[in-house]
Amino acid sequence: MRFSSVFTALSAVTSTLAQQTYINPVLWYDLADIDVFRKGNQYYYSASTMSFSPGAPILRSGDLVNWEFIGHSVPTLDFHDTAYDLADGKQAYVRGIWASSMQYREYDDTFYWIGCVDFKTTYIYKAKDPAGDWSKVGEIGTCYYDCGMLFDGQNIYVAYGNTKISVAQLNNDFTQKSTTQVYSSSITIEGSHMKKINNNYYIFVTQPASNEYVLKSSSGPLGPYEFKIFTKAAASSVQGSGNPHQGSVVDTPDGKWYYLAFIDAYPGGRMPVLAPFVFDAQGWPSLKQANGFAIANPYPVTPVPVKSTTGIDSFTGPKLSPQWEWNHNPDTTKYSFASGGGLILKTASATKDLYHAKNTLTHRILGPNSTATIALDISKMSSGDQAGLALLSDNSAYIAIRNGLVILQRDLTLGAGWDTLSTGRQETSASLPANTKTVWLRLHADIAPSGSHQGSFSWSADGKTFKVLGTPYVMNTTYYFFIGYRFGIFNFAESALGGQVTVKSFELALGSK
Ligand SMILES: *[C@@H]1O[C@H](CO)[C@@H](O)[C@H](O)[C@H]1NC(C)=O
Ligand SMILES: *[C@@H]1O[C@H](CO)[C@@H](O)[C@H](O)[C@H]1NC(C)=O
């Protein structure tokens, strides 16, 4: 082969790769308050989860576009308050894990997570392997609100605050050494992400929920900082969504820079969108194109496929797959894995209120619309127990089995203080065939912000023929609850504990089924 033909073949491969483009959102899952960084050729992504447990999910990617769940930084919401356990009649909706930060520290080859809980205390967790076990390092009795951590050699800095931005310096044992206000803004800014790039210190901040600014200092981590716009009301490709904002920046091994931000796109929540950006000669970063999120950009690096978001989970154990989160801390004595697969949910609360029932297992809804189907062994349910599949948020509906009927309950609401306002009303019910042992419950949810916002429930006694139950439920699109609608799998008792169900499988499919 002559050199020229080798060259032709190579450039053909290169141009095929260059033609591969990604579309936003890169993953249509509710994963807000993004912190992202690179270690070698792997990218890591952390997000906030409020009162869902475990908290602060970790995703990994080889290309910034294809992401998969690998674990959580906060194994249990161990925040000195039984509200996180749904105990003592208390609940912690809209509390817990807000914007926080996960970074890798080369100095001791360890991953760290830091976040403020309930505007009071900042917690720190660590792990050698981000997909493995995380443990608590300590607590700082100050709130590092919306914080971003920077490891700078041996030094540890944390930028935080709302409008007045501070930088804390931590000791090697993660106690506070000092804290200094480095900037006071005339507009509301928050969501700090601190970076050191070419000996400049940067703190990226958002003006919620539309613009992104950047603070830059060439003097040191404590400033003085100058302030400039990074991107103003950038366009999103998702019809009806808000502007990409409060993002985190990361480079590729070959020196290209990307901004991973999120869009408000209720009822589904806040999803990640990715766009390239550049630095000018003075080291000021800005988004390359104002519509950088709206266009199909080339992949940052060669695409690296990950496990599909869709498919069947048969709960083979010994642990739940990392995309699952409980509504509040679970009672770990009330769930287990059946031999041969299946998640056994024993009733863990005596209540008529789904919002106060322990051990509701949640899964993000895949957008723009998707269908969840569970197969439920109901042969060991007790009288009055309710087990089923919910469309869960502060305004909710669910399909459930109760006393041999399949029921549709709707208009459950949380009110002031995020306490239960209504446990809902039963719209309709249907009889199960005699001696039904396994029931399939299905929920199709359209979370596209410009879509119907409808959730439609159906059920089957044979897993093949599904019957629609009741009328579609229209999801609420306000953002106050922050977390987007989720699929929720539950089993609670009305009076006495003792009954159980086995969730034999959960199937997630894109679109309708
Ligand atoms: C949507 O939820 C909010 C609380 O998050 C509530 O104030 C509002 O009334 C709800 N809207 C509808 C149409 O139910
Ligand atoms: C659901 O999403 C699919 C893409 O996965 C789309 O083709 C379809 O139009 C959507 N359906 C509705 C009802 O929005």
Automatic annotation (TrEMBL):
<dbReference type="GO" id="GO:0004553">
    <property type="term" value="F:hydrolase activity, hydrolyzing O-glycosyl compounds"/>
</dbReference>
<keyword id="KW-0732">Signal</keyword>
<feature type="signal peptide">
    <location>
        <begin position="1"/>
        <end position="18"/>
    </location>
</feature>
<dbReference type="InterPro" id="IPR006710">
    <property type="entry name" value="Glyco_hydro_43"/>
</dbReference>
<dbReference type="InterPro" id="IPR041542">
    <property type="entry name" value="GH43_C2"/>
</dbReference>
<dbReference type="InterPro" id="IPR023296">
    <property type="entry name" value="Glyco_hydro_beta-prop_sf"/>
</dbReference>
<dbReference type="Pfam" id="PF04616">
    <property type="entry name" value="Glyco_hydro_43"/>
</dbReference>
<keyword id="KW-0378">Hydrolase</keyword>
<feature type="domain" description="Beta-xylosidase C-terminal Concanavalin A-like">
    <location>
        <begin position="313"/>
        <end position="507"/>
    </location>
</feature>
<dbReference type="InterPro" id="IPR051795">
    <property type="entry name" value="Glycosyl_Hydrlase_43"/>
</dbReference>
<keyword id="KW-0326">Glycosidase</keyword>
<comment type="similarity">
    <text>Belongs to the glycosyl hydrolase 43 family.</text>
</comment>
<dbReference type="GO" id="GO:0005975">
    <property type="term" value="P:carbohydrate metabolic process"/>
</dbReference>
<dbReference type="InterPro" id="IPR013320">
    <property type="entry name" value="ConA-like_dom_sf"/>
</dbReference>
<dbReference type="Pfam" id="PF17851">
    <property type="entry name" value="GH43_C2"/>
</dbReference>
<protein>
    <submittedName>
        <fullName>Arabinanase/levansucrase/invertase</fullName>
    </submittedName>
</protein>
